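S.,

Sequence below, as promised.
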Amino acid sequence: MNKLTIGLFGFGTVGAGLYTVLQKSKTVDAQIKRICIKNPDKRRNIDAKYFTSNAEDILGDPEINLVVELIDNAAAAYDIVKTALQRGKSVVSGNKAMLAEHMTEMIALQQKHNVALLYDASACGSIPVIRNLEEYYDNDLLTSVTGILNGSSNYILSKIFNEGETYSNALKQAQELGFAESNPSFDVDGYDSLYKLVILTLHAFGVIIPPSEVFNFGISNLAECDIRYAREKGRKIKLVARVGKTEDNNITLYVMPRMLTPDLYIYSVEDEYNGVVIRGQFYDKQFMFGKGAGGLPTGSAVLSDITARFHDYRYEYKKFCTPNPPKYVTDNLVTVYLRYRNVSDFEHFRFVEISEKYTSSEFCYVVGKISINNLLSIKSLLPTLDVFLATMCS
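The prediction came back faster than expected:
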């Protein structure tokens, strides 16, 4: 491809970051022609001639051969990306919710219209996980991908465990720095990590799983007693996403807080950084680390996708095209710490085995084995319960 003429959707933190890093790049012949924004009256620090609030000014422009979509609204992102692909324009997208919900259709659109959709920046900020899973780990020797995929929640937990901040103060700091939104639920309740995990699972194991069928639980119910328990055990709590093979060569995945011991790589991943551990049958563990939040790091990841497209790169979805991909199973057991205050809340959990139990007038907890199936069956109920749940990692 000789030159990329870009139509950019969104000029928030990441869009502005991309604009900045693109001006500094000397390795790709790419130029932003138009930027579609929602609020044309907002003051911005570049020439107003770039801006439009009409999507058709980008989607209908024959000179624009690459659409870069960096907006928050998943439904609007879907319409933009689908239309661009249908009109023969390749796309770079950062919208992990849209991608996770519509991945099967997005793969089909790329094939039908002979275009490419790249989204490395959607998964782990500045860490090139997707392309590595797609190209380097393009065989069946991969056994698991485990990581901290959300910089906002990790920043909050770092402030709590390293500086003694309360959850509310740490959240406020994350919001002030632009790491967390005014409504932080997408990050702290594990949805951001969930969508990223669904995308990584496709490229790691060739399986597309609807996000609604994957268990996720976040850190918004974290209490002082949970923090104290972790410290007494010499552990830190991190929000961790994991997909891994089971003994029968199928896969299971979930997003939950995890009580980590100091010998684990991701124990030391702090602040807005992400960390991913890739484990294989013969190469044991490999670790990738980098910033997972912020305009410039994520903008740099988007630029990497743009540069890859400049060189005609596209995902081949090799594992997705294999005849016998692994099945997604949820009957496996995980060891968890469950803190509760009301016996009626505890009764929703069907523990197979309990190895530790504590009861007091203020709170109670158990440590034991429970099936992912049971957790999935009460997933919609959990936000109404006064409980905190974390996996125990030895």
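The chain has two domains: 4-119, 131-294+325-392.

Coffee later?
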